[in-house]
Each structure stands twice: as C-alpha cells, then as structure tokens.
Amino acid sequence: MTRQELFSAIQRKRSFLCVGLDTDPSKIPGQLNGDVLAFNKAIIDATRDYCVAYKPNTAFYEALGLDGMRILKDTIDYIGKEHFIIADAKRGDIGNTSGYYASFAFHTLGADAITVAPYMGADSVQPFLNYPGKWAIVLALTSNPGSDDFQHGAVGDAAPLYARVMQRAQTWGSPEQLMFVCGATHPEKFAELRQLAPEHFFLVPGIGAQGGDLDAVCRHGMNAECGLLVNSSRGILYAAPDAGFAEAARAAAHELQQQMEAALKNYLP
Ligand SMILES: O=C(O)c1cc(=O)[nH]c(=O)n1[C@@H]1O[C@H](COP(=O)(O)O)[C@@H](O)[C@H]1O
C-alpha cells in the first residue's frame, strides 16, 4: 500500500487506528476453546470499519509453534488487501540475514510493513527497503520504560539517540517506504519528533494499556497527510472477557475512531 493509498483510507474511514493483534490464548473467552484464529476473525470482523491497519505481533504466533505460523498467515489473508498490515517483529541483523527476515514478512506473510530495530545500522535496514510498495518501520522512541536506558541518552555531544536514529534513517529511506515508531507515552516529545521527521508516518503504540496520551500525540504529531497510525492492542482485544468480547472490541475501536475523527478535524493542517 502506498502512502497516498494509506492517506486516502484515513480520509475515507476518518480514522488512523491500527488494531494490534497480540492474541494471548489464555485471554480468549472460554466458548472459543483457545481457537486463536476464530478469535482473530471475530475481532477483525468487529473492527474493520473503524481502523485502517492491523498489527499482528509475531511473538504471540511464534510462541504457538508451527500452528502459530499457520494462524498468523491465515489471519493476514483474512484481513485482506483493504487494510495496511504490519508484521510487528522488530527485526534487524547483518544484511544477508535481514534479507530473509524481509522475505518472510513480505513474501511469506504478505504484510505491507515490518517493524525494524536500527541498532545494527544502515546495511541491516536496507534489505527491508528493497520491496516496492512495502515499508520498514524503524524504532525511534519506544513506549516502554526501558526507552530511558539508551534512547534518551546523548551520543557524544550530539543529540539524543532517538534523534540521531531519525536523522540518519531518513537518508536510508523516503517517506514512501520508511516510518518511525514513536511511543504515545512520550507526548511531550511529539512536537520535537515531528520536527525531526516532518513527512514520515509515525506508528504510535502505547495508548490504552500503557497509558499514552492520544490527544497530545495528535495535536503535536499530525502532518498534512495525517502521518500517524495509532495502535491499540489489549484495549481492544480484551475490552470484555466473555461472550460479548467482539461487541466490546467494536465499541472500543469505535470510540477511538471518534476521537481520531475529531483530531483530524482539529489538527489536520
Ligand atoms: O513496535 C511496536 O509496535 C511497539 C513499539 C513500542 O515502542 N511499544 C509497543 O508497545 N509496541 C507494540 O505495540 C503493542 C502495544 O500493545 P498494547 O499496549 O496492548 O496496546 C505491542 O504489540 C507492542 O509490542
């Protein structure tokens, strides 16, 4: 999916919601008997009107072994072509190896994008940028408490690591093929993050269960093509623990869509 197609979907849906498919078999309502694919299909059916993207986190499927790989692929096929699909795998290795991670995400799974850790530098990210129409989403400032350990630290007398990552990575890939992960738990940083990368999309996790600030993210982070994909996983998947889980997921997604519609009206330049 191209950037223009993504922005068109955002305008049509009046939403920049990404639903995270972090499906934990122990949290699936009893009547599904641990059937992860059935749960995912019910969540997708319940939320597809209100979101533009889905983000299966591959960890949850890898943990299920061979069955998990099948479920991941079937989930992606079930989502179809109308939504932007992010394989959240946070890969990155020497170039030769990254090429195979890219092949898995784009050929085997058929995802539009994969999350990538930039720690190993340009040649570790480049293989993810060799696929026309596909995207690398580079970790810049992550949402977790451990982001304090390295990402806020200055490198020599220069800018903090997240700023260096964003500046350097823009020389690797254009706004048509590279996004940045910027956590919603750092709302006070979004004006600066947007200044650092005016045109690139940001994938923004951390609202809901991690307590991030959606309005501040939108106020400071939106650009002329919206430039934001805001993810919620647990807040939607487990909105209700019982038979009403799909309706509750739909309501949770709808509520976020409405906040996003208001933000588009208020903040889209
Ligand atoms: O790359 C990610 O998506 C990601 C980056 C980050 O900084 N923080 C973060 O939470 N994530 C992912 O986003 C999802 C957040 O899930 P919830 O906190 O349940 O909404 C999980 O799949 C995380 O792995």
From TrEMBL:
The keyword Lyase applies. SMART domains: OMPdecase (SM00934). Signal peptide: none annotated. It comes from Neolewinella lacunae. InterPro entries: Aldolase_TIM, OMPdecase_type-2, OMPdeCOase_dom, RibuloseP-bd_barrel. The keyword Nucleus does not apply. It comes from the Bacteria. This is Orotidine-5'-phosphate decarboxylase.
